[in-house]
Amino acid sequence: MSKLSHCLKIIMLLQTHQMINSKKIAEILNITPRNVKAYIEYLREAGVPVEGMTGRRGGYFLADAYYLEPPDLDDAEYSALLLAEKLLTQNTGFPLQKELITAMAKIKSVVGDVVSDKLPIPSDEFIFTLGKTDKKDGVNKTLAIICEAVKQRKYLNILYYTASKDERKMRKVAPYAVVYREDSWYLIGYCLLRRKIRTFKLVRMEHVTISDSDFVYPIDFSIRDYMSNIFSIIQGDKYNVEIRFFHPASIWVKEKTWLPTQQIEDLEDGSILFKATVKGLIDIKRWVMSFGKLAVVHRPRELAGIIQNELRELNDIYS
Question: Which of 72, 113, 172, 256 could bridge 192 with an S-S bond, Cβ 3.0-4.6 Å?
Fold first, then answer.
C-alpha cells in the first residue's frame, strides 16, 4: 500500500475515533508503530491538524474543525462489510441486528453503483452461527441503557439476580466497559455494594436505570489489561497452570489460541503440555473437565484438588 493510501486510512481512523494510539493504528493497517509516527508527521507537514496526547490513555486525534470527505469504498472493502452483515444477521441472536441492517442500508444508499452488491462467495453457501445465545427479551434495551451510562459516566442502578446464591439485590455500579464473550453480554464495573470491580451478566439484570450521580473513570484501569488471561469471564487470582492433554484432545487444543500467555510443548507419545498464566480457576476447571480423561492437571495442585472434589461428588451422585 502506498504512503498516500496509508495516510488517507489514518485520517479515516482519526475521524471515526475520539482518540486512537499508534499501536492500534499499526494493528489495523498492518504496519509498525514507527511507520505510524512517520505518517502522522507527514500529515502534519501537509497541514492536517493531528494532535497528540501522551500517557496510558493517550493517542492521536483530529482538531474539531477538520473533516476530510471519505473516499469511495473499493470492492474488497465493500465485500468485507457485506460479509460482516451476513455473519451477524443470519439468525445468530446478535442483539443489534436491526441497527446493523439499517446502518448497512444507509451505506448501500450512499455507495450506489460504485461497487457490486455481491459477496466474495455465494450467500447460500456461507452459514455462520454464534452458538448458544441468551433467550431473555429486553437485552437490547438493557445494553442501550448501559452504553449511554458508560458514555455519560453515570452510575447505574441494577436489580441483579445472582444465580449462585439465588438472590436478588439492588446494585449501584460505575459502568467501565461492556464485553461480548461466549455469546453473552457482560458489564464490567465497580460495585458499591461489594466495593470491588465485578462482572454482571446482562441477561440477569431484571431492572436497570441510569442514576443522576456521576463517577470518575479510574485513570489506571484498562479493560484490555483486566480481561487479559481470563479464560472465560470470571476474574480471580493469578495462577500458572500446566495441563497434559492426550490424543485426540491434544489436536483440538493446538487448533486454538485459548490464552495470550499459552505455551504448548509436544511430548513424544503424541500428548502435549499446555502452559499458561490464568486469572481464576473456575472457568479453566470447567474447560479441563470437558475433556474428561484426556486432560490431566499437573499444576497448580489447588486446581487438581478442586477437580478431585467435584469428581467425588459426581461419583456419590451417580452411585
Answer: 172
Distances (CA, A) of 293 to 74, 269, 303: 51, 16, 15
| Cis amide linkage into residue 70, ω under 30° from 0 | no
Distance CA 179, CA 285 (A): 22
* Residue-wise pLDDT tens digits, 276-293: 999 889 889 999 999 999
State the pTM of this model: 0.63
Same domain, 182 and 256: no
Whether 255 and 218 map to the same domain: the answer is no
Are both 280 and 299 inside the same structural domain? yes
**Local structure of 234: helix, strand or coil:** coil
Q: Which of 227, 248, 272 is the last residue of a domain?
A: 227
214: exposed, middle or buried (Cβ count in 10 Å: 0-12, 13-18, 19+): exposed
User: For 224-238, how does the pLDDT look when each residue is reduced to its tens digit (9 = 90+)?
Assistant: 888 887 877 777 889
Those residues whose C-beta lies under 8 Å from the C-beta of residue 85, and which sit 6 or more positions away, are 100, 101, 104
pLDDT of 92 over the 90 cut: no
Distance between CA atoms of residues 59 and 53, nearest Å: 5
Q: Indicate the average pLDDT of the chain.
A: 85
| pLDDT average, residue stretch 66-77 | 73
CB atoms within 10 A of CB 29: 17
If you count them, how many residues does the chain have? 319
Q: How many helices (H) and strands (E) does the chain have?
A: 10, 11
Residue 133: inside a domain = no
Alpha helices in the chain (DSSP H): 3-16, 22-29, 33-45, 75-88, 97-111, 139-152, 223-227, 249-254, 282-289, 301-318
